[in-house]
Amino acid sequence: MDRWEGKGAPAAICRKVAEAGDGGTIEVWGDGKAIRSYTYVDDMVDGIYRLTHASLTGPTNIGSAEYVSVAQLVNTVAQVAGKTIHIKYVEGPVGVQSRNFSNERIHSIGWRARYSLKDGIARTYPWVHEQVQARRAAVVA
To answer: What pTM, to 2 d.p., does this model score?
Structure first.
């Protein structure tokens, strides 16, 4: 399974929205209220790079301070896609309701997330959409 096909909520939601028609319905595990923080890969790489050049020792969290519900994630992806998407909540693994971590250590070396969730999805969704279209074309051929 390719990463865009669904290992991780942003990729899975991007794929589901790309596969759905405008006004369509996608299935989402849980009730949509679980809270998460998603960090765009470029921000993660920048944080890791800065850590390799810093004198910090020990575990250090790298993450966006923007917390959103799973329902907000779906709405963000739908907005970027320019679609109206309905959500059907289904039973499935959702993990903990909320996670909380401190960015104090990574902030102490000047790192901050540069990309909001919407910015990251705006950079990710078009690529996932292309992959979905390519897979559809391959099935038809």
So the answer is: 0.88
